[in-house]
């Protein structure tokens, strides 16, 4: 009886310690793919694409946000299916799925069924940030892929969300107001938005018959040219309006919104809301502190509700789950 109790105790202890080991860490794949360097394989794929198309940076950053904020960083956003997350309206304009699949094929060739799609998103997003002059933060790995992907789980905010609603949304997921300003600002320091998502600010803002008074008049005039009313074409506009930094992950976004040159309503509102304006000013004035804190916020975002250890699975391709053998 006594030895039985000892065995049970040891088993409980083992299961507890194996859980402790199942955490994310930098360099998780070192030694797990023969002599191959998994992160270099992914970086090469990102670098090749970036050389042809630097807008891939924005695509990867947004993809990680949309993956992590919906049922955790588990690559559920990549799964195909009639009702999968991909089909939810906020995800219809996501880009970069082909790059992730290309990186997956490259790591599968080096060592099959070792590297998760969720880790590929995180590593590729970090590489993209670094390639576009952002911080080379120490990305953590060790995630496994989720098995559930449902459009009905996608509850991402729209561009008209207020600052206080957005603070609530981020707080619910464990992020402070400062981290919210970092993530939205760092994310929107690159990339584009469709006219349809901010057109309300250009013509008849909140039924006033006038443009949004918080938008710089010259910018509003220019954007009306780019986004005509009742146009069949939904044009794209840079989220960071300084041409030289529209593709650079930097603090230029904060300077722009302070100058009333934000594109999305939420971006502009952060510059003047009492809870966020001082944070915006501090990042506008200090590019270095923005970079280090943005890196830390990305690491935190990448750790949201991750599956590690024996949880989840490692897919063979990122768009589909392995078929069950019958
Ligand atoms: C309250 C939170 C947020 C809202 C309401 C929001 C909303 C939006 C909207 C409406 C667009 C334009 C989409 C389109 O026109 O197709 C956009 C683009 C983008 N967002 Fe956000 N976003 C938020 C937070 C974030 C965060 C946290 C990140 C990343 C850390 C991020 C990264 C991006 C990027 C990179 C783009 C450009 C994508 C591209 O060029 O393809 N966003 N966002």
UniProtKB/TrEMBL annotation:
Primary enzyme class: oxidoreductase
Gene3D superfamilies in the cross-refs: 1.10.520.10, Peroxidase, domain 2
UniProt record, GO biological process: hydrogen peroxide catabolic process; response to oxidative stress
Subcellular location: Secreted
Cofactor: binding comment: Binds 1 heme b (iron(II)-protoporphyrin IX) group per subunit.
Xref: InterPro entries: Haem_peroxidase, Haem_peroxidase_sf, Peroxidase_pln, Peroxidases_AS, Secretory_peroxidase
Name assigned to this protein: Peroxidase
Species this protein is from: Papaver atlanticum
């Amino acid at each position: 009886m006594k030895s039985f109790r000892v065995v049970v105790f040891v088993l409980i202890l083992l299961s507890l310690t194996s859980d402790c080991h199942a955490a994310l860490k930098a360099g998780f794949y070192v030694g797990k793919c023969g002599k191959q360097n998994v992160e270099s394989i992914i970086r090469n794929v990102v670098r090749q694409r970036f050389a042809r198309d630097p807008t891939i940076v924005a695509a990867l950053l947004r993809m990680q946000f949309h993956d992590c904020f919906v049922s955790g960083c588990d690559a559920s956003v990549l799964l195909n299916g009639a009702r999968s997350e991909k089909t939810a309206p906020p995800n219809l304009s996501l880009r970069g799925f082909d790059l992730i699949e290309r990186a997956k094929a490259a790591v599968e060739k080096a060592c099959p069924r070792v590297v998760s799609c969720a880790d590929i998103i995180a590593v590729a997003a970090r590489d993209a940030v670094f390639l576009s002059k952002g911080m080379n933060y120490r990305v953590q790995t060790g995630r496994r892929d989720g098995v559930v992907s449902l459009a009905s789980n996608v509850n991402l905010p729209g561009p008209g969300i207020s600052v206080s609603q957005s603070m609530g949304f981020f707080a619910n997921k464990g992020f402070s107001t400062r981290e919210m300003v970092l993530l939205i600002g760092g994310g929107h320091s690159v990339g584009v938005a469709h006219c349809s998502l901010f057109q309300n600010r250009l013509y008849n803002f909140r039924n006033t018959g006038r443009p949004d008074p918080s938008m710089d008049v010259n910018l509003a005039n220019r954007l009306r040219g780019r986004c005509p009313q009742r146009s069949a074409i939904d044009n794209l506009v840079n989220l960071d309006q300084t041409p030289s930094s529209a593709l650079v992950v930097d603090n230029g976004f904060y300077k722009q919104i302070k100058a009333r040159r934000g594109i999305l309503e939420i971006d502009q509102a952060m510059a003047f809301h009492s809870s966020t304006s001082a944070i915006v000013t501090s990042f506008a004035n200090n590019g270095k502190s923005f970079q280090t804190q943005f890196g830390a916020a990305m690491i935190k975002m990448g750790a949201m509700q991750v599956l590690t250890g024996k949880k989840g699975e490692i897919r063979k391709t990122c768009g589909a789950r392995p078929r069950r053998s019958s």
